[in-house]
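Give me the fold.
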Amino acid sequence: MNGLQLRFLRCLHDAGAPCVVIGGFAIRALGIDRTTTDLDVVTSTEHAVQTHAGLALFSTQLGELLTPEQLALPKKRIEIPSQHGKEVDVLTSVGNLRFADLYARRFDVHTKDVDVPFASAADQLAIKRISLASAEKDIAVGVAPEELPRAEAARNKDRADIMLLELHIRRS
């Protein structure tokens, strides 16, 4: 994770907003060699006020653009870009997975700045299966021709991640 991403997690922590890191960084935290650049975070809709406070600590502009009411809704995705591209994705839910369960099964890794809560291997596998189903649905329904390569790449990445996670779980 880069400094901006760690600062983002620190802001959520300082505001008392529970979160769980998912995606590529969670897979890497399991010891699986996988490249990634963006930070994917699931937050609790039940702690939307704290999440909003954390986002406002990170960026006053985010605090002004979003409301706690918006962050209390499931299926929201907030992309936080930087000058280098997409840095952080905040999700308020993932499929039918309950945040409280994800949080209870997380494992924390201490960094210099903050304890980083990562999704468990089993939860990360479930999340990747949800992501794969969504990507396959997008392709089947028919995405715009210019979006098809992105959708196919996402589907292929999810398939590869699922294989790596299944192997990791079998070996554990």
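Residues 3-171 form a domain with the Beta Polymerase; domain 2 fold (CATH 3.30.460).
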